[in-house]
Amino acid sequence: MSGQFWDETAFQTLFAELGNIPLYEVYELTRPAVPGELIHGISILHSGIVGNEYFMTKGHYHVVLETSELYHCLSGQGVMVMENLDGEWEILELRPGVSLYVLPGWAHRSVNTSPTEDLISLFAYPGNAGHDYGTIETQGFRKLVINRSGSPAVINNPRWLAPTERL
User: Fold this and answer.
1) What mean pLDDT value characterizes the chain?
2) H or E segment at 121?
3) Would you tell me which CATH number, out of the four given (3.50.50.60, 3.40.50.720, 2.60.120.10, 3.40.1190.20), belongs to the domain 8-158?
4) What is the pLDDT of residues 14-24, one digit of tens each?
5) CA nearest to 63, candidates 125, 128, 139, 108
6) CA-to-CA distance for 52 and 90, rounded, in angstroms?
7) pLDDT(133) > 60
């Protein structure tokens, strides 16, 4: 997760203090990477903060952009940060019993906004979807979810540049 948080110094400080702790865990039933198969599993996103940014998953697009993903929150509280290549973005709440559909072509990342509980979700996606983490690794998502006075707040990511600004 190095390089994924806005405050890299805070991340390195946390890493130095606590060691290589997992921020999240993924357990999935792997199926053949072909159309018609359904990969599914559980993600456990632990509670914590780096600087003022909540623990989050790395986030990804699917290699096959026309594929979607389904999440069902089992416990905890958080949000799903989503965006597409056309510049649209959305942030939706995750709480127990909430199912969330990530549209084809949308990158997505879970963020745990609970001060003490793990965010646990069931997920499912097509076997041929694949994961593209590289697009997100360069500068993250357009929006960040931070802790502002004890409550989640959405801000623009200061590192994010539109493709035309990257030149």
Assistant:
1) 93
2) strand 119-126
3) 2.60.120.10
4) 888 888 889 99
5) 128
6) 21
7) yes
